[in-house]
Amino acid sequence: MADDAPVGGFAGRLGATLQESDDGSATLTFQAADEHLNPAGTLHGGVVATLVDTVMGQAVRTTTGDGEVPATSQLTVTYLRPGRPGPLEVRGRVRTRGEHLTICEADVEQDGRAVAHAVATFALLER
């Protein structure tokens, strides 16, 4: 997929940009701004959850056939340190792809430091 491709859905409305997506992996970038912060002044956990869910879904889509649609059935996000305004890199990868379920992982980094780690299960639905 081309660099700097727009991301659809909610993550796209937040401003996430798809950098690459191929062979069971994907990378997003995101510019955190004041509007993405919680009352404590750090990056809102819901924004982080949206980003990891989106990048893992994109990674799964690189492995699916025409009639398959990935749907998140479980998502666990471990927040490792507070995010701040500024650029984030979000990387997702397929760990195990089964016939009906796929397991993925994602990492969020800011300034070379881990912000969050996530694990998700995606159900593969037929259109």
From TrEMBL:
Keywords: Hydrolase. InterPro entries: ACOT13, HotDog_dom_sf, PAAI_dom, Thioestr_dom. Its EC number is 3.1.2.-. It comes from the Bacteria. Residues 41-114 form the Thioesterase domain. CDD domains: PaaI_thioesterase (cd03443). One of its GO terms (molecular function) is hydrolase activity. Belongs to the thioesterase PaaI family. This is PaaI family thioesterase. It comes from Geodermatophilus maliterrae. The lineage of its organism: Bacteria, Bacillati, Actinomycetota, Actinomycetes, Geodermatophilales.
